[in-house]
Design a protein that fits this description.
By secondary structure, the chain is mainly alpha-helical. The protein folds into 2 domains: 3-73, Winged helix-like DNA-binding domain superfamily/Winged helix DNA-binding domain (Arc Repressor Mutant, subunit A); 78-221, Four Helix Bundle (Hemerythrin (Met), subunit A). 72% of the residues lie in helices and 6% in strands. It has 10 helices and 5 strands; from the N terminus they run αβααββαααααααββ. The strands form 2 sheets. A 3-stranded antiparallel beta sheet has the order 1-3-2. Strands 4-5 form a two-stranded antiparallel ribbon. α4 (78-102) packs antiparallel against α7 (147-159) and α5 packs antiparallel against α6. The longest helix has 25 residues, at 78-102.
Length: 222
């Protein structure tokens, strides 16, 4: 394969990756759905190579899983989701505590912008809310100053990616999320590690209670 064709294939795989990720997160494809390389190539009007590369990348992010008969959209049980959140709650609390200790001015500005972006996101668009929420938590993970903690949090968020849109389908939960984000931001901005830790922990525990109150049907929280 020439350098030019290789570059073109990489570009196509990035495009397919973005489109397929959007379609999975928006529930066009539901948990456990089989993802045929041939069907996807036809749907996105590309060859199978960029589809295969996109599926491999999404597998690393936890959105798809490769089984004996090919790729499928990932599926989590309610019990698995709660177990992941148990670990995430502890790590998010630690990250917020360390972020408050570091108080990097540039990252503080980005954190405020992320909180404002989430607040201003279309409340009727769970995907946009989920993306804005990820940005907020990504900044805290970066601000904690511990690359191992950052990477562990990224891995946990990837594991939960398949259900993150479901968490923002409730307007009442979204409003609560906005308030909790601001409490975390304010504690970090004030340089109060204990308050930041407590706010971040409470945020995750509230999410767990919300999940417990929901029904799980076909891998979708409703």
């Amino acid at each position: 394969m020439s350098a030019e064709s290789s570059e073109r294939s990489a570009k196509y795989s990035d495009i397919v990756y973005e489109m397929l990720k959007r379609d999975i997160l928006s529930r066009k494809f539901e948990p456990k759905d089989k993802l045929s390389e041939t069907a996807l190539a036809k749907m996105y009007n590309v060859s199978r190579t960029p589809v295969r590369e996109a599926l491999h990348k999404l597998e690393k992010e936890g959105l798809v899983v490769k089984l004996s008969d090919g790729y499928h959209v990932s599926f989590l049980t309610k019990e698995q989701i709660l177990k992941i959140f148990e670990v995430r709650a502890v790590l998010e609390a630690l990250a917020a505590e360390k972020a408050a200790e570091n108080r990097d001015p540039e990252l503080l500005m980005r954190l405020r912008e992320a909180a404002e972006k989430f607040k201003g996101a279309d409340k009727g668009n769970p995907l946009a809310l989920a993306q804005a929420n990820s940005e907020f938590h990504d900044v805290i993970a970066e601000m904690c100053g511990n690359e191992y903690l950052r990477d562990m949090l990224k891995d946990l968020r990837n594991k939960l990616a398949i259900v993150r849109v479901d968490l923002f389908a409730s307007s009442s939960r979204v409003e609560q999320e906005i308030e909790e984000h601001w409490r975390i931001y304010e504690a970090i901005e004030k340089g109060d590690p204990q308050a930041a830790r407590e706010a971040a922990l409470r945020h995750q525990l509230n999410l767990m209670e919300f999940i417990k109150s929901k029904k799980m049907i076909g891998g979708i929280l409703i």
